[in-house]
Amino acid sequence: MIDVLIVGAGPAGCAAAVYLKRYGFNVKVIEKSIVGGNVVFTNKVDNYLGIFDETGLNLSTKFKEHLKFLDIEIINDQVLSIEKKDNFILKLKNSTLESKYLILASGRTFKRLGLENEEKYVGRGISFCAICDGPMTKNKNIVVVGGGNSAFEETLHLAKYAKEITILVRDEIRADKYLFDKVKSLDNVTISLKEEILEYKGDIYLTSIVTNKREINVDAVFLYVGLVPQIDYLKDLNLNIKNNYIIVDKNYKTNIDRCYAAGDVIDKRMYQIATSVAEGVEAAFSINEDNI
Ligand SMILES: Cc1cc2nc3c(=O)[nH]c(=O)nc-3n(C[C@H](O)[C@H](O)[C@H](O)COP(=O)(O)OP(=O)(O)OC[C@H]3O[C@@H](n4cnc5c(N)ncnc54)[C@H](O)[C@@H]3O)c2cc1C
Fold this sequence. Notes:
- By secondary structure, the protein is an alpha/beta fold.
- It has two domains: 2-109 and 227-290, FAD/NAD(P)-binding domain (3-Layer(bba) Sandwich); 118-223, FAD/NAD(P)-binding domain, CATH 3.50.50.
- 24% of the residues lie in helices and 29% in strands.
- It is built from seven helices and 19 strands.
- The chain has helices at residues 11-23, 56-69, 118-121, 130-133, 149-158, 177-184, 273-290, and strands spanning 2-7, 27-31, 73-76, 79-84, 88-92, 96-104, 108-110, 126-127, 141-145, 164-169, 189-193, 197-202, 206-211, 215-217, 220-223, 227-229, 241-242, 245-246, 259-261.
- Strands 1, 2, 3, 4, 5, 6 and 19 form a seven-stranded mixed beta sheet that branches.
- The longest helix is centred in the last third of the chain and has 18 residues, at 273-290.
- It starts with a strand and ends with a helix.
- Bound molecules: flavin-adenine dinucleotide (FAD).
- Flavin-adenine dinucleotide binds next to α1, β2, α5 and α7.
C-alpha cells in the first residue's frame, strides 16, 4: 500500500512528488513515457523563471535528477484504469498498485487533424517534436501546421536544418509578436494563411499532402494544432469533467475523496510549466494538510 500515487511525471507530477517526499509520504510516480512530459518536446523553454536559454530536454533531465536525489521511485508504465474501493486500485500494463491518495497529473497530448491515414504516418513523416526529429529534416522540404506559439517557436528550431518550411495556418496567427517577427525574418520560411491539409499521400512514408489550395511534396509534416487532455484511463472514476478537463476546487481536489489533480489535465486559464508546477505543489500541500 502506497500513501500517494501520482499519474504523470511532467512538471505537475514531479513538483508534487518532491513536496510529498519532503513531507514524509511514501510516494511513487507512474510515467508511461519520459520524465518531463511536454517539456521534453520543447525546443527552448520560455517564461519559466530562472530558465532562459535552455532546452526542454535539459530541464526534463533536471526534473529526473531531482526525483532521483530525493529517492523517489518512478514506475515506467502506463495506467490503464483506476477504480476506487476503500483505496485507489490502479491497473497498469504490467502490474496493479494500490494507494490511499491519488494525484492525476497526466497532462495533454498533441491533437491530430483527424484525417484518414494520419496515425499510419505518425513517425513516418508526421511528427510532433521538432527537437527530436529536427536534425532529420536537413536539406528537406517540410510543412509546419498551426498558428500558435508552439508552431512558431518550433519552426525557429526546424529552420536551422530544413531547406524550405511552409507554415500552414488555417485560421489566424496567434503566436506572440516577437516570435512571429523572428519567423518572418527567416529566408527559408513561408507562411501561408487560410490553408489546411485535406489529405495525406504516400506509401509507407508520407510523400505529399493535398491542401485546400494545392498538392505539396513533403519530407515531413510537424503538427502543432493544439493539445487534448489525457483522461482515457479515468473512465471508471466518476470525475467531474468539463470539455474533457478535470474540475478541481481551490485545493486541487476533485469531486472524489482523496483524489487530486494538477497541471494541464485540469480546467484552468494558463497551461504553462510555472502554473503546472504550482498546482502540483498545492495538491501535495492539500494532501499533507489532510493528514495533520
Ligand atoms: C511544443 C510545446 C512547447 C511548450 N513550450 C513551453 C514553454 O516554453 N514554456 C512553458 O511554460 N510551457 C511550455 N509548454 C507547456 C508545458 O509544456 C506544459 O504546460 C506542461 O508540460 C504541463 O505539465 P503537466 O505536468 O501538467 O503535463 P505534461 O507535461 O503533459 O506531462 C504529463 C505526463 O503524464 C504522462 N501520462 C499521461 N497519461 C498517462 C498514463 N495513463 N499513465 C502514465 N503516464 C501518463 C505523460 O506521458 C506525460 O509525461 C509547451 C508545450 C508544448 C507542447
